[in-house]
Amino acid sequence: xxxxxxxxxxxxxxxxxxxxxxxxxxxxxxxxxxxxxxxxxxxxxxxxxxxxxxxxxxxxxxxxxxxxxxxxxxxxxxxxxxxxxxxxxxxxxxxxxxxxxxxxxxxxxxxxxxxxxxxxxxxxxxxxxxxxxxxxxxxxxxxxxxxxxxxxxxxxxxxxxxxxxxxxxxxxxxxxxxxxxxxxxxxxxxxxxxxxxxxxxxxxxxxxxxxxxxxxxxxxxxxxxxxxxxxxxxxxxxxxxxxxxxxxxxxxxxxxxxxxxxxxxxxxxxxxxxxxxxxxxxxxxxxxxxxxxxxxxxxxxxxxxxxxxxxxxxxxxxxxxxxxxxxx
Length: 328
Fold this sequence. Notes:
Blueprint: E1 7-13, E2 16-24, E3 65-70, E4 73-77, H1 79-84, E5 92-99, E6 109-117, H2 123-136, E7 139-146, E8 149-158, E9 161-167, H3 177-180, H4 190-203, H5 215-229, H6 248-279, H7 301-308
Parallel strand pairs: 1-5
Antiparallel strand pairs: 1-2, 2-6, 3-4, 5-7, 6-9, 7-8, 8-9
Helix pairs in contact: 4-6
């Protein structure tokens, strides 16, 4: 199933305009998710929208937005009133300015999107805007309306396209002062810092996200696989705590010694993972589709596949290739 655009409209730089579509650059659909069910019946829980006072169910057409000004006092705002104050950015991303990427504080970043030409026309204008941003080595700042809210969006070239990142407004970012003011001003010795730097050097490497593994997701998949197959689940023993660090210098020395011992194994693991990734070309992923669990023991492959076919949406379990990177 083809990905669905979150927004369609126009990208405009002064008098240069082209039709574009905005697609989310990330997805949570591949993660294991759960439904709430009735323990006694096994049926899903259904939520109803009810009046807080009468307890009566309320239909969608009778539900409107309200801003709370006091206890049980709301200012009602209709959809037509919200449409009347809608801004031009509802249908157009206007590029307002260009700024150095380094000027954008990471705390203002929300989520990334892909901005692509919409249809067969406008590719020339799109390319002009993209290459203009690329040649200036800056980020274009514009505005876009998503889910009835206007957002600031930062646009930058990404290969042959544009990546747009939604940004927070200043009132959404908390000041660090209320959190950092109580941090003690500690004097560190040169020896401590040198030891810590050696540890960092031992753990340094290239950023390779394909080697990362979501250990909790893997554990969830393993748990569901075992429960489907009827395998008894053994309770895991609680790991013993390492206790408090008594001497920081001793802890740094011990950490460095451990890293030296683990160094070759870590390097071998990374190289093995790289070779595996190269040798096994990943399948083309279909948006929203999960790789399913292998047939349960005792059933034929054809029978299991036939039985599972109409129920793919109810089986979020998939087989995974273990690709790990030692955590630092």
